[in-house]
User: Fold this.
Amino acid sequence: MLEWRAQALRAAKAAGIPAEEVEILLKERLGWGPLERLLGRAPAGAGELLEEVEVLWQQRVEKRVPLQYLLGKVEWAGLSLRVTPAVLIPRPETELLVEQASLWLQANPLPPASCLADLGTGSGAIAIALAQRHPQLQLLAVDSSPQALAVAADNVAAHHLQERVQLLLGSWFVPLDPWRGRLRGLVSNPPYIPTGELAHLMPEVRLHEPRQALDGGEDGLAHLRLLIQRAPDYLAPNSFWAVEVMRGQAPWVAEQLRERDCYRQIQVHRDLAGIERVVSAHFVG
Ligand SMILES: C[S@@+](CC[C@H](N)C(=O)[O-])C[C@H]1O[C@@H](n2cnc3c(N)ncnc32)[C@H](O)[C@@H]1O
Assistant:
């Protein structure tokens, strides 16, 4: 196993894959981490298990399959979430969207059973994180991909949130018609990458993450535009609106919101890398 690890670390270095991934794979699949190594403990049935690990590792190095898909899970915002190639792997920067929504909800307490929508829920990450942090809320988690919603359903069930996170299949606001004018918040991490840039993404993303989760149309703004234009029909007065954007899109989104008379406290929030990542606003009606 020591020999396999040394070889894998060399392959990782050559392929530009973080060494940490070798350690995670060994710990997750063999229960063999730094402590076990130090104590010289090998897991029972190590030889056979190592063959399985080798198959996974080949997929990681040769096919550039993201480790999270190989393991079928990701740790995100304190949650353990199932992920498959049907859903985008939740990114650390998306925690900022949850944090901003949480801050607004703390400053503007809502009546019990108020509804917030997570549009383009994917794995259900944002809806689940908000439902856990705000037990008085109902979450409506929308996605146009039935395969993604199946993964979200597993995650909702694993966190025992079936009573408070409702999964809705359909395009953006279409399944939200019964809540027209009644939503107290809308959050979304929509596809926002310009179509022409998709071919230049790293292979892990380009080859394995769902295109439907990435493609924001010719200028990357197609879905953001819709989220800005249609939200006023669905939000109740004094509610929250926030989206995640890619580098360079925040000023355009903030300007679009300012042009409408119904948004106040329009704010741009930077992620840990200093990139303008989330735009939020208070919808006054
Ligand atoms: C960038 S991913 C975000 C996934 C998840 N919310 C997250 O932050 O990890 C965008 C999601 O939007 C969904 N989507 C794309 N087009 C959609 C549409 N027209 N209506 C609803 N959801 C859509 C995709 O299937 C994908 O799950």
